[in-house]
Write a structure and sequence with these properties.
Number of helices: 7
Shape: elongated
Largest sheet: 4 strands, antiparallel
Strand content: 5-15%
Number of strands: 4
Oligomer: single chain
Structural class: alpha+beta
Helix content: 40-55%
Length: 193
Amino acid sequence: MNSVLLEARELPILRMIDFIQVKLQSWFYERRNEAEGTFYDISCWVEEELKKKIDLAFTLNVFPVDSWRSRVEEEGITFLEDLNKRTCDCFQFQFDELPCIHAIAAIKKRNIKKSNFCLHWYLKESWLKTYERQIHPVGHTDSWIVPESVKSQIVKPQDFKVPPGRRQKKRHIPATESSKITFKMWLLQKNWS
């Protein structure tokens, strides 16, 4: 949002709110239309992510243990996955709550729909619910119906002292924040490998 509002930051507050309203209105409209137009049971992004994994999944050896669990071999390493519990030894299935390549291989072996194993937030109906509401334009102030109780209230600006110096335009990232990101990336890489 920070980069989206970059051009609106210098505007007066009411103009900035109008800008935000118009931007959100167009986003909701575009995304609602995209969700309604998809033929998948899941969002387009999830479908693309799963398609990337399918080619790798075909190279894996799958050995079913029972109707839900399988032993999947990838380059000599064995992964145990359970479709019922939605778990895999690689932890990517639990982490993303989307089927990992091992789960996709097991799903393909059983001829089940991949969308059955995606978290409900990734499904098309959740995508549609997210953008089901419309953001209506406010209209001109002459058309507003304002109750007398609101009109009679006097709102004064709060006491505020302008600090000396030039106003900051960009967000300064403290050194401690960048180390947190680095540590998180290290932790994620460690779990995936």
